[in-house]
From TrEMBL:
The keyword Oxidoreductase is assigned to this record: yes
Gene3D superfamilies: FAD/NAD(P)-binding domain
Organism: Thermocoleostomius sinensis A174
Pfam families: FAD_binding_3
Name of the encoding gene: hpxO
Domain of life, per lineage: Bacteria
Domain FAD-binding as annotated: residue spans: 4-341
Origin organism lineage: Bacteria, Bacillati, Cyanobacteriota, Cyanophyceae, Oculatellales
Catalytic reactions of this protein: urate + NADH + O2 + H(+) = 5-hydroxyisourate + NAD(+) + H2O
Name under which the protein is recorded: FAD-dependent urate hydroxylase
């Protein structure tokens, strides 16, 4: 297609990756976000090989390798520290052709901003869109308007534009647990520096994952009512109570974390929904398919969205709306399957049915490591870059 002007709403991982991909394709791209300053949501992200491959495709392979953690194996342990399973990730890496890179969100966002290179217009709250036969205009709360050939709604799980595309309200669904996450200095008293260690028990998890800068990205999951009060000054006391009697590295982690640098998302997902596109407006990333983080695929799916959207815009001459429908057809099958699978896994991990969770613990203790890596590789290899 001729040179297009593309308006992107949202400067998270999906919006920035889309901006980079579409700018590289020769299109004019403007990115807007409602926030007043760029701050990443959450401390870290487990970027699996399908997401890394998108970055490689966009020429960002050296940069992500520099900021990503060297994760060579995984360990599952009981809450008191007994090893359930040890999984060498090298067979997975060779099977899919790329190592995963757990990464601090701030480092990833900085890398993507530098790669985009253009201005991201902040403090622009999108409140709606209007379409004509050959253009679409985004309207902002501050009175600004942006007109282009298409609008990409990468405005997250609480998307304003999802209602326009779906023509109905889609409310995020509570996944049943709260997650505390942050960064701490890597230390062998917590975990080996090349290993992702996950402690499990009572429907809870405590996890340490290596990221760049000689740090661990940690998270602690607890099934709780979503209305549970949120007070950073009591995080450590709450976590000590939730993880009383757990292994010493978990206790050390809770002692070392800075509660005022900890994110505490109440975990929700979205969908699966049956429309990602309406006319010249396309949902991308969490606005279309926010997933429970239990498969580490949220950011990866947003990156895949960006690549597939670029491909259809570049390879069709039947118009923007046709290209977007092709994008929708491919992505709705792939991403909705991940939403379903991640929700099922969240329920399995977090004790929605205690019997199912206990069966999972028993399975961890007996299954061959290849079963774990095969399941991960199946998800990775179902993406657009095999």
């Amino acid at each position: 297609m001729d040179k297009l002007k593309i308006v992107v709403i949202g400067a998270g991982i999906g919006g920035l990756t889309a901006g980079i991909a579409l700018k590289q394709a020769g299109y004019e791209v403007e990115i807007y976000d409602r926030i007043k300053e760029m701050r990443p949501v959450g401390a870290g992200i487990s970027l699996w090989s399908n997401g890394v491959k998108v970055l490689n495709y966009l020429g960002l392979g050296p940069q992500i390798a520099q900021i990503g953690g060297q994760m060579n194996r995984m360990e599952y342990r009981t809450k008191t520290g007994e090893r359930l399973n040890e999984i060498d990730l090298m067979p997975l890496i060779y099977k899919v052709g790329q190592r995963p890179y757990p990464v601090a969100r701030r480092d990833l966002q900085t890398m993507l901003l530098e790669a985009f290179g253009g201005e991201v217009k902040l403090d622009h709250q999108c409140v709606g869109v209007e379409e004509t036969a050959d253009s679409v205009t985004a309207f902002f709360e501050n009175g600004h308007q942006a007109t282009g050939d298409l609008v990409i709604a990468a405005d997250g799980i609480r998307s304003i534009l999802r209602t326009y595309v779906s023509e109905q309200e889609v409310t995020p669904t509570y996944a049943g647990y709260i997650n505390w996450n942050g960064l701490v200095a890597a230390d062998e008293t917590l975990a080996p520096k090349d290993c992702w260690v996950i402690y499990v028990g009572d429907g809870k998890r405590a996890s340490l994952m290596p990221v760049g800068g000689d740090r661990f990205y940690f998270f602690l999951d607890v099934p709780l009512p979503k209305e549970t009060p949120d007070h950073p000054e009591t995080y450590q006391a709450e976590l000590r109570e939730h993880f009383r009697g757990w292994a010493m590295p978990v206790q050390v982690l809770i002692d070392r974390l800075n509660p005022y640098e900890v994110a505490r998302p109440v975990i929700h997902d979205v969908g699966p929904i049956d429309r990602y596109v309406r006319g010249r407006v396309a949902l991308l990333g969490d606005s279309a398919h926010a997933t429970c983080p239990d498969m580490g695929q949220g950011g990866c799916q947003a990156m895949e969205d960006a690549l597939v959207l670029r491909r259809y815009l570049m390879t069709t001459n039947l118009g923007v709306e046709y290209a977007l429908k092709r994008y929708e057809t491919e992505r709705i099958e792939r991403a909705n399957a991940v939403v379903r699978k991640a929700r099922k896994r969240a329920e399995q991990i977090h004790g929605k049915d205690p019997e199912v969770t206990q069966q999972w613990y028993d399975q961890l203790a007996s299954e061959p490591p290849s079963d774990v890596t095969d399941a991960i590789s199946n998800v990775i290899l179902a993406g657009p870059l095999r």
